[in-house]
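Quick sanity check, Putative Zn-dependent peptidase:
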Amino acid sequence: MLDYHIHTLPNGIRIVHKQVLHTKIAHSGFILDLGSRDEQPDQLGLAHFWEHMAFKGTAKRKSFHILNRLESVGGELNAYTTKEKLCFYSSVLDKHFEKSFELLTDITFHSIFPEREIEKERGVILEEMAMYLDTPEEAIVDEFDNVVFDSHPLGNNILGTKESVSGFKKDDFQRFIKDNLSTEALVFCSVSNLPFEKVLKLAEKYLADIPTISKPRQRVAFETYIPKTVTFEKPISQAHCVIGCPAYALNDDRRIPFFMLVNLLGGPGMNSRLNLAVREKHGLVYTIDANYATYIDTGLLSIYFGTEKKQLKRTTSLVLKELKKLREKQLGSLQLHTAKEQLMGQLAMAEESNMGLMMMMGKSILDQGHIDTLNEIFDQIKNTTAQDLIDIANDVLAEEKLSFLNYVPN
């Protein structure tokens, strides 16, 4: 069972902690329910740019002091941005936990966005964009969001555009934070050997002065989907393809059964149906996988593979054949049992990562208000029937619902 403690401070910030006695490392971070989908049309890429700028200066620290604070004691400081979340996090030896907590608080709430640093970091982000564009297997996955979600904010690239990133000034960051930051929509989460009482005492010490900020926000729901087929010629040597469509939202009861279906289809196991049918049997790809991303109001299924240009049509047909099997042929009892055991084993191993556990706890509190234990998730998996899976396959994986994005060599 996942034993954790949760406490809400007077200003609305929630503290979530799990004590793990056998570790010497303290993982912690602030997770904000704020991401690229919350940007206005003139703010594309601003959340991600903020992630970078948090390390570039606060009211009491310059960039070097921020970067050196934990690195000098063997720790790590990092951040990430997604469509719906922004996170600043760290990993340190337990004896440096307070130092880590104070620094994370400083960069999350007291960044000053020096104009000189903005100019330097602008170049870094433009190079990051160039790196992604030079990596077609990553670029095509990001661009597929735009194919499926079109003009909806979920379709925008987290990095923004060259034009938007080139124009941001200090007041753009300040306005974005003022309009979106809410103490009720952020969590400090930690996993370490420290008792909750110590974590709470430090939270009260460093977060008590943060004022209550309430910013009720209604995200624009994604509602209109039109399947598309889009092909781009690129200066590449291999054809790349993503196939997919919208899927179930984060709190949909069918989320876990669909996740099991996607795992069976193209999960990390070498025995996934796509890997066996396309790579092992025909040798057409090096990589083929299926992923399921969930958002508060929708989800996204994406199947990726890279192959020779002349094999693109054949490989696509093999993928569609596997999807058809899932729609038409119910799993036998042994197949169903194996699919369940494989997913439960993968989830249990994922929880062995204390860093991943810390992230999961924070996101679960923000999205659901509670944290499902492994046993609760296992119960959902165990209760899934073969009929459930075939019904879901027919609901989501119908061929007429699929979109296709192809990059082909020119």
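Posting the structure with no commentary besides this: The chain has a mean pLDDT of 96.
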